[in-house]
Amino acid sequence: MNYLEFEKPLAEIEGKAAELRAMGAANPEMDIEKEAAALDAKAQKLLVDLYRSLTPWRKCQIARHPDRPHCRRYIETLFDEFTPLAGDRGFAEDEAVIGGLGRLDGRPVMVIGQEKGHDTQSRLRRNFGMARPEGYRKAIRLMDMADRFRLPVVTLVDTPGAYPGKGAEERGQAEAIARCTQKCLSLGVPLVSVIIGEGGSGGAVAFASANRIAMLEHSVYSVISPEGCASILWKDAEKMRDAAEALRLTAQDLKKLDVIDRIIPEPLGGAQRDPAAMVKSVGVALRTMLKELDGQNADALRQARRQKFLAMGSKGLAA
Fold first, then answer.
1. Is the distance from CB of 76 to CB of 93 less than 8 angstroms?
2. Pick among 1.10.1270.20, 3.90.226.10, 2.40.110.10, 3.10.129.10: CATH of 60-318
3. Which helix (H) or strand (E) holds 110?
4. Residue 241 vs residues 70, 247, 249, 250, 304: alpha-carbon distances, Å
5. Cβ within 8 Å of residue 130, ≥6 positions away
6. Which of 74, 97, 104, 239 could form a disulfide with 234 if both were Cys (CB 3.0 to 4.6 A apart)?
7. Exposed/middle/buried for residue 167 (C-beta within 10 Å: 0-12, 13-18, 19+)
């Protein structure tokens, strides 16, 4: 288990409990279970206290936790007969974006998501979930295919943002993001999106301009990272805690502003403490959102999506 900075007191207690049990296993004559159980109870209480009132910055840390279930795990668990489709048919394959055909409870859907990777090698290969222009153009190609065959589209968002490198800019990064966002808005099939970790800037909007948007309880969704915001406003990235407060990037804030439609509860301690339960909860939310959109024709879906985004921000301005 990887512990975040604010979880260090919890790490100490759980570590002591583990040490006691290891000593008991090595010496069966020692009766340590009572002491270990007391430490477990203390750790559970501390976990509840830590997660009862999380600051926006701590939620950012949880959203970035390396042990959170990533896109690939959701796809492998929730979708049967998943067939990956690669390439943008123009330049290259971008492994930061996973997409393909699958079945959700037997229903064919197009699944598109951003994958960060789970170890050093895969993170480098996936570019830490930061898509290049060809990743967005691949997503456009798959959405076109879904529209042609009348398949609902499911997107799983988890990215710090679009890749800002020189080569990406030379190949039209901004245009690719804009076209991908436009494609989301013009689809004549249901489009549902879940922000499973970080929803960073245009890199997230290009996948999440959907009929229904859900966020995991401790995920974040904003126009810029707190560090980037702090660097611009205060010329000091260390003010990221203040920036996180100001950005209103938590699922709870965004639900109040009607930017998202629902919050998916996470297990106590975050999705990383019980990935199987988290994946199951996301599956329930996906089925519910798709069911809400059943029976709507292409024009109704486009119009509802358009109105949804035109109305965003009005509540925040009134507040």
1. no
2. 3.90.226.10
3. strand 107-114
4. 25, 10, 12, 13, 36
5. 96, 159, 160, 161, 162, 163, 164, 203
6. 239
7. exposed
Confidence class of residue 285 from pLDDT cuts 50, 70 and 90? very high
The first and second tokens of residue 247, run together, are 């950005």
Q: What is the mean pLDDT of the chain?
A: 93
Calpha distance 96→131 (Å, rounded): 5
Q: Which of 297, 82, 109, 97 is nearest to 180 (CA)?
A: 97
Q: At what angle do helices 240-247 and 56-63 cross, to 10 degrees?
A: 100
Q: What's the distance, Cα to Cα, between the start and end of the chain in Å?
A: 41
Q: What is the pTM of this model?
A: 0.92
Phi and psi for 131 in degrees, rounded to 5? -75, 150
Nearest to 97 by CA among 62, 129, 59: 129
| pLDDT value at 316 more than 80 | no
Contact 216, 69 (CB under 8 A): no
Query: What pLDDT was estimated at residue 319?
Result: 47
Looking at residues 129-134, what average pLDDT do you find? Answer: 96
Contact 65, 273 (CB under 8 A): no
